[in-house]
Write a structure and sequence with these properties.
The complex is a heterodimer.
Chain A lengths: L11 H29 L15 H30 L6 E8 L2 E5 L5 E2 L2 E4 L4 E7 L4 E5 L4 E5 L5 E5 L5 E7 L12 E6 L1 H9 L4 H4 L4 H11 L25 E6 L2 E6 L2 H9 L5 E2 L15 H13 L2
Parallel strand pairs in A: 1-5, 4-10
Antiparallel strand pairs in A: 1-2, 2-3, 5-8, 6-7, 6-9, 9-10, 11-12, 11-13
Helix pairs in contact in A: 1-2, 5-7
Chain B lengths: L1 H4 L11 H6 L4 H29 L10 H37 L7 H23 L15 H4 L4 H28 L12 H33 L12 H35 L6 H14 L15 H27 L10 H24 L1 H7 L3 H31 L1 E2 L2 H28 L13 H31 L1 E2 L45
Antiparallel strand pairs in B: 1-2
The chains are: A alpha+beta, B mainly alpha.
Chain lengths: ~300, ~550
């Protein structure tokens, strides 16, 4: 919450209501005038029209007043923008990487998460980039958005001033899984956050999940299910159900070949999908190098074995 | 009867029937060629839009697959933008009316005019072929943002080449109109005696001619990037994806004015005729068209406020954006003032104009939210933008196009449109339009991103409402099309000047003869002269 007179225009909502209020007055004014004229000067009420070519004072007035109004709107938007672009000293930094189609958040101590957990009340700076195409980090609840552009870092900051879970959307279209490129911002008390930040392993392993169980967690957390179903439903990519041990026709360039889905084929599809593609599916699978560790890929393969 | 036989509709040269139409260099026939093709594309794209809305009626619905949905909004956008809204008013109404309003027998380059239509059809063919060939229908959005448009396996290259051809068509039409306006005005028609529709097409022509080449170059670069990996936009090869966005919007923002300026011209024609008085502030309207065209070139960056562009650039583009808002506002005031002390009949063209003023005002005013930096960051890339540009493009240009069609239909076909049906269709469309698009403003402010085939459940009520609106809107559209098509055969015969218009097209017969005028008229007054009125007329 941004409060107090000196900060009035730092708030996006205040700028929004300011512009909307002026707009509603203008709209109602124009409409009322228009409708009044149509009835008052209808052919039956006013059979003999009058030619009025122009009126210099009126025209100067209705150019000057809107000019002042729009300049005020510009100023209000600019004020709020400067606030959004000025990161307060001591903000916590989190590196955000977007890729087709998942988010990863890396904290200052090297911890990586697929959910953005943040401590309540502490300003946070997101340093944003992309591993493949243009994405956009959008957290509506905190009125912030900035694109993730491959090859460069962009940033945004905000003050987590309410606890709870909030949506984080991808706001630049990035392909088939765009809609599923959604994560959560979790604002938790500072002491809880400190404990979480020090946890080394993912909670799934800490809870003693099996390898296959961890794999099941991973395909959800890393966004695989945006294209691959786990229940046999047809989707953009092949379903994981019954995949293990299946014979598939693959295309290497224009050459067809028969393969059996085994450990090495699965790993190759995860890390170097551009080498070959399964016939009948578009060549859009992004490499998961850097997203999944070797251990995690192995867990996913274990999970495949259970999906008979 | 003699007159009707001599009309452009029935008279033919060396070739008869369809061949006579496809080889005709008559500006009126070319206008109808554009109109027939465009109606088909418009209906296809409307159908795709309805499908999209159907898929969004509830969260988790699977009317179409995710990939199909992505192709739906891409193809809907490409067709509506490049095949309907950009060429719409200039190619159909402009081609038909411009030479008539100037008192000319045709445009300056009639063959080039026909050639432009073939470019248009070639571009359309490429765009439609891209749906069924190669890797399947493009799924990039109509903006073709790199690197995704370079990486996707879908048939982007062919679609992009189609847009390139359509750009050629647009450029040549602009060039043709500019030359015509400079060289072919009737004796006595000085610049300030030209109808405002001509002024609007003049401003538009310069934008078409100067901005479209940038699009052509950019789209070719995308094709080269896909085919040869030249790396202009690929950061791994020293390129820059944001460069693409700049180049794309350097065309595509001025293109917004290619879409809206001719619409403003149509509105400025219709109001004086149905109010039976001169337009208020003729020069202000003419000059504001030019001002919009010029300032419109330098506001493209407002499409990129969250793209990672420098903060300084964002501030400058925001300021310029607010500057361009003023002349658009001035036009709305002028139109409203032109009703003052008129003698008004609300026939169907004027009803469409009144709907236009309401919808375009909402579109323009919500543009202020987009132009202000802090609020833009919240609504960028959300349904707020979708609502905003539909209010401007469809509520604005679309409704103005329909207004112009109803206004000039008697001239085109020599028959009157059925007023009752036309008004019912207009009201139905107006209601459906607002039920469909207004909820999107609220959705967008709440954070609903665009180009999502699914959404969290809390967005459902407004999404469902919008889908219902799409049905009402389509019912209105179909009623309107039915009524117009019916008019061609069954409408009551129209006189040469059924609306008591004062511009030169009403001096020609309805429908006009091949050469438009028996004797080229001489112009002695301004375009909207009603000398019998009170007050002074120019």
């Amino acid at each position: 919450m941004i409060t107090g007179w000196p900060n009035l225009w730092n708030s996006t909502d205040n700028a929004f209501y300011f512009i909307i209020a002026i707009s509603i007055v203008l709209l109602l004014g124009i409409m009322a005038t228009m409708i009044f004229f149509v009835f008052r000067y209808s052919r039956s009420r006013n059979p003999r029209p009058t030619n009025i070519e122009h009126n210099a004072w009126l025209e100067i007035l209705w150019t000057a007043i809107p000019t002042v109004l729009v300049l005020a709107m510009f100023w209000v938007g600019w004020k709020g923008f400067i606030y959004k672009r000025t990161v307060p000293a001591g903000a916590m930094q989190v590196k955000v990487t977007g890729r087709m189609w998942s988010w990863s958040f890396e904290y200052e101590n090297g911890k990586i998460s697929s959910v953005l957990k943040l401590p309540f009340g502490k300003p946070v700076k997101l340093l944003i980039t992309s591993a493949d195409v243009v994405h956009g980090v959008f957290i509506p609840a905190f009125r912030v958005k900035e694109d993730a552009v491959p090859g460069r870092d962009t940033y945004l900051w905000f003050q987590p001033d309410k606890t709870g879970e909030f949506e984080l959307f991808c706001s630049e279209f990035c392909g088939t899984g765009h809609t599923k490129m959604v994560s959560t911002v979790e604002i938790i008390p500072e002491n809880e956050f400190a404990v979480w930040l020090q946890q080394k392993e993912t909670p799934a392993l800490a809870q003693g999940l099996s390898q296959a169980g961890l794999g099941a967690e991973l395909v959800r957390a890393k966004g695989c299910v945006a294209c691959h179903s786990t229940d046999g439903t047809a989707a953009t990519g092949p379903t994981f159900k019954g995949l293990w041990g299946k014979k598939e026709t693959v295309l290497r360039g224009s050459q067809e070949a028969q393969v059996t889905v085994d450990e090495s084929f699965a790993r190759s599809k995860i890390f170097s999908p551009e080498k070959e593609r399964i016939k009948g599916f578009p060549p859009i699978m992004p490499s998961q190098r850097g997203v999944l560790s070797e251990k995690e890929a192995a867990a996913i393969v274990e999970y495949f074995k259970t999906l008979r | 009867m003699e007159k009707i036989e001599a009309s452009y509709l029935s008279a033919y040269g060396q070739r008869k029937g369809l061949a006579g139409w496809l080889t005709s260099t008559d500006h009126k026939r070319i206008a109808l060629l554009y109109m027939s093709a465009m109606s088909v594309f418009f209906l296809v794209a409307t159908f795709l839009g309805v499908l999209m809305r159907l898929n969004l009626i509830a969260p988790g619905s699977h009317v179409v697959s995710p990939r199909a949905y992505n192709s739906l909004f891409t193809v809907h956008g490409v067709i509506m933008i490049f095949l309907f809204i950009i060429p719409g008013i200039p190619a159909v109404l402009g081609n038909f009316v411009l030479p008539l309003q100037l008192g000319a027998r045709d445009v300056s380059f009639p063959r080039l005019n026909l050639f432009s239509w073939y470019f248009y059809m070639g571009g359309a063919l490429c765009a439609l072929l891209s749906l069924f060939t190669g890797g399947g229908a493009p799924d990039t959005g109509w903006t073709f943002y790199v690197p995704y448009s370079v990486k996707t396996g879908t048939n982007v290259s062919l679609a992009v080449f189609g847009a390139f051809l359509l750009g050629m068509s647009s450029m040549l039409t602009g060039l043709n109109f500019l030359t015509t306006i400079h060289r072919m005005r009737a004796p006595g028609m000085t610049w300030f005696r030209m109808p405002l529709f001509v002024w609007a097409l003049y401003a538009t022509g310069w934008v078409q001619l100067l901005a479209t080449p940038v699009l052509g170059i950019t789209l070719l670069l995308v094709i080269f990037e896909r085919a040869f990996g030249i790396g202009v936009f690929d950061p791994a090869r020293g390129g820059d994806p944001i460069l693409f966005q700049h180049l794309f919007w350097i065309y595509s923002h001025p293109a917004v004015y290619i879409m809206i300026l001719p619409a403003m011209g149509v509105i400025s024609e219709i109001i004086p005729v149905f109010a039976r008085r001169t337009i208020f502030g003729y020069k202000a309207i003419a000059f504001s068209s030019l001002a919009i065209a010029i300032v419109g070139y330098i506001v493209w960056g407002h499409h990129m406020f969250t793209s990672g562009m420098s903060d300084m650039a964002r501030v400058v583009f925001s300021l310029l954006t607010f500057v361009v808002a003023v002349p658009s506002g001035v036009k709305i005031f002028n139109w409203t003032a032109s009703l003052y002390k008129g003698s008004i009949t609300v026939s169907s063209p004027l009803l469409f104009v009144l709907a236009f003023i309401f919808l375009f005002s909402i579109g323009g005013l919500t543009g202020l939210i987009n132009g202000a930096l802090s609020t833009n960051i919240q609504i960028h890339g959300t349904y707020f933008i979708v609502a905003h540009f539909h209010y401007v493009m469809f509520g604005g240009t679309g409704f103005a196009f329909f207004a112009g069609l109803h206004y000039w239909f008697p001239k085109m076909f020599g028959r009157m449109v059925d007023e009752k049906r036309a008004k019912a269709a207009c009201i139905l469309m107006f209601v459906g339009f607002n039920v469909l698009y207004f909820p999107m403003f609220i959705l967008g402010w709440q954070g609903m991103p665009r180009r999502y085939y699914d959404y969290p459940a809390h967005f459902q009520p407004l999404h469902s409402l919008a889908t219902v609106g799409s049905w009402i809107l389509v019912a209105g559209l179909l009623l309107m099309l039915h009524n117009l098509i019916r008019t061609i055969r069954h409408g009551l015969p129209a006189s040469a000047n059924p609306w008591q218009g004062t511009t030169l097209e009403w001096h020609a017969s309805s429908p006009p003869s091949i050469e438009n005028f028996d004797v080229i008229p001489t112009v002695t007054t301004g375009p909207y002269a009603y000398p019998q009125n009170n007050g002074v007329s120019s």
